[in-house]
Amino acid sequence: MASFQTWHKRSAILLAFWTAVVLSLPAWWYLTSIQRLALPQERVQDWVQRGHCPIRIPLAIVVEVGVGGEAGQSASASASAHALRHELATLLHSTRTPTPNCEQVMQVQVVAEGEAQPAQAQISHQHGSAHLITLSLSASAPLSLANDLASSSSSSTASIADQAHAIHQAICKLLQLEAIPTSISAREIPYSRRVRTVWHLLNEDASVSRASNHTSYSGLRGWDAQALNHALIRHIGPIAHHLDAIHDIATESQVKWYAPLDFQPVEMHVPGESVPEVLATVAQAQRQQRDHQSADDDDQVTRDASTQDEASKARDSDESADAESLPSEEQQQLVTGIALPELPQPKKVHLITPDDLTVFVNSAAWGLSSPSPAGEYEFPSAPWTKRLEEAQEHAWGSEELEEERTLHFVLFVAAPHHRPLLIQTHNSTAASNSSGFLLPQWGGVFLHNIAEVQAASDVGDALAPALGSDDLDPAMRVFASQLRALLGLRIPISPRGSTQGQREARIAVARQALLRRRIAETAREAVRTLDGIIKLTHKIENLGIGPRVRDDVMSALDALDQLEMEFRLQDSSAGSTSERLSRALSHSRRAASHASRAFFNRDMLALLYFPAEHKYAVYTPLFGPVAVPLLVALARLAKERRKARSAEKEKEKESSKKER
C-alpha cells in the first residue's frame, strides 16, 4: 500500500528536525560550558607565604626615663636611669618580632628626661606619631603614656633588670600588644562596619492584674522615647563617637508585653530586717509623726493607748527569750507612744542559676530575631547614629553594603510572682550584686525589678509609668560596658586621681589597639579567602571563574597592596596615627569584602555540583526521547531509499530484457 506522503516530503520534514538540532548545538555548548579565566595565583601566594601576619603594622615607641628623688640623690639616680634605659632598650628591641595582633615595633628610642620631644619628632617624620611613655625612678612618680597618662609605678628598691622587665610588661599591657585570652575574644562579634543595636523592653507577663491591696505593677508601660534617646546619647554616644572610624552604629527599639521564661527561677527565703533596722525604721516613723501634728487629739490618745498595750504584750511574750536578744532600755524608749511594727517575715527572692543564664533568652518565642525598625517619632535619631535606610540604596554585593551585625540589649521586667528576680553567684547560693549579664556575640540583659506600690495609687492601672532618663542610668551603664566588650574596646583602667586628659589618652590608646587588631583580622581573612579560591579552582575542575570573580580577586589584591603601601609612607603628609590606621582599616575591609564576594559569587557556584559523570545521567533521558525517533526515521528513510533504488534497477533490467 502506498504511503500518504512521498519519500521526498518525509525527507524534508526529517531534514527540518535535524537542522534545528544542529543549529541549537552552539547555543547548548555555550550555555553548558564552564568559563575558567586565569587568576593571579603568584600574587596570592606571595601574601599566603607571609603566614599568620600578612601585614605588619608598624609601631613606634619613645620612652623618656626621668630622675626622681632629691637633688642630693641626682648622681646615683642618673646612673640608675642610664642603666634602666639600656636594659629597657634591650627588652623593647626584642619585641620587633610581630605580636599576636601583627604589630611590629619598628622604632624604639629610650631617652633621658627632656629629650623626648626631638626624638618623637624624628620618629614622627619616619613612622607617624609615636607613643610617648614617660617614667621616673621615684616610687611616687607614675609610669605614664601619651602626655602623662597614669598607669603604674616601679619601685626604686628593685633591681634594674626587674624594673625594666616590669616596665616592659606594663608597656605591652598598656598598648595591648599581648595575646588576647580566648575567654575574652570569644565574646566579641566578628568585625563588620555596620552594627545595629536593638533595645528591647520585655515584660514577662503584662496581663497580670493588680490586686486590691498591697501589690506590684505587672510591667512597664513602654519606652519613653525622649528619655531613652537622652540615655543613649549620654551612655552609648561616647562609645559610638570613639569608634566612628571602625563601626557605624544604628538603633532600634522594641516593646514586648509577653516574654515568659522557659524555666522556673529558684525560690529562696532570706532573713528579714534585724532588730536595729526595725528600731531605726520606728525612729524614722516617730520623727515623721512629730512633723505631722495635724491629727486630732482623740485619735492620738487612742493610738497611744493601743500602742502601749501592744508594746506590753510584746514584752510579755518575749520574757522567756534570751536576755541578750532583748533591746536595751534606751531602744525600748524609742517605741513609746508609737505603734511597734511587726517584725518582717523572711523575704522571698527568685534566683537565676548560672546554667539558666545560658537559656534565659528565648529569641524564637520572644520574637527578637527580626525586629521591625522604629519610626522617627517613636525613637528619635541620635546625632551619632547612622540610619539603616541609607544602605538600601546600594546594590547587592557592593563594597558599601557589607554584612550587618545585630546586638540585642534587653531590659527584662519580671512578673510580680517572680520578683525580685536576681542572679545567683557561681558556686554559691547567694545572690549576685550585678543585675545584668552578657551573652557572647549576641548582646546583654538587665533585670529590672519594679518596686512594690500601694493599691491606693493608680488602682486601675496595672502598668508602671515608663522609666525616665535618670531611672535608665543603672541599666545603661551596664549596657555600655557590655557594648564595649562585644565590640572589643578594652579601655585600660585609669588609676584614682587621673585627669580627664589622662583618661582620654587611655581611650585613644585602646581605640588604636582595636584599629590595629581589626586591620590584622580583616587582612588575614582576605588572604585566607583568596587562598581558598585558588585551592578550589585546582581541586574542582568545573568550578567557574568568570569576569566578575577575576575582577573581585584583582580588586582584593589591589586593596591589600594599598594597605601595605599605607604603612610604608614615610612623609608627614600621611597624617596622624589614628588617621593612618583608619585608612588602613578601610583598605583591609575592602579587600575582605571583595574576596568574600568572589568566593560566594553565584556564577562561580552555578555548575559546581554538576560533574562529568552526572552529564550522562541527565543527557540520556533528555536527548534519548528526541534522538531515537530522529535516528529511527533516518534509518527508515535510508532503507526505503535503498529499496526504491533496488526496485528501479530491477525494472530497468526487466525493461532491457524485453527490448532484446
From TrEMBL:
Location, primary (coarse class): endoplasmic reticulum
Q: Which UniProt keywords apply?
A: Coiled coil, Endoplasmic reticulum, Glycoprotein, GPI-anchor biosynthesis, Membrane, Transmembrane, Transmembrane helix
User: Transmembrane region positions?
Assistant: 12-31, 616-635
A GO BP entry? attachment of GPI anchor to protein
Q: Tell me where it resides.
A: Endoplasmic reticulum membrane
Coiled coil residues, start to end: 630-657
Q: What membrane topology was assigned to this protein in its record? A: Multi-pass membrane protein
Metabolic or biological pathway, per its Swiss-Prot or TrEMBL entry: Glycolipid biosynthesis; glycosylphosphatidylinositol-anchor biosynthesis
Q: Please list where the region (Disordered) is annotated.
A: 283-332
- The protein's superkingdom reads Eukaryota
One GO cellular component term: GPI-anchor transamidase complex
Q: Record's family?
A: Belongs to the PIGS family.
Q: What is the name of this protein?
A: GPI transamidase complex, GPI17/PIG-S component, involved in glycosylphosphatidylinositol anchor biosynthesis
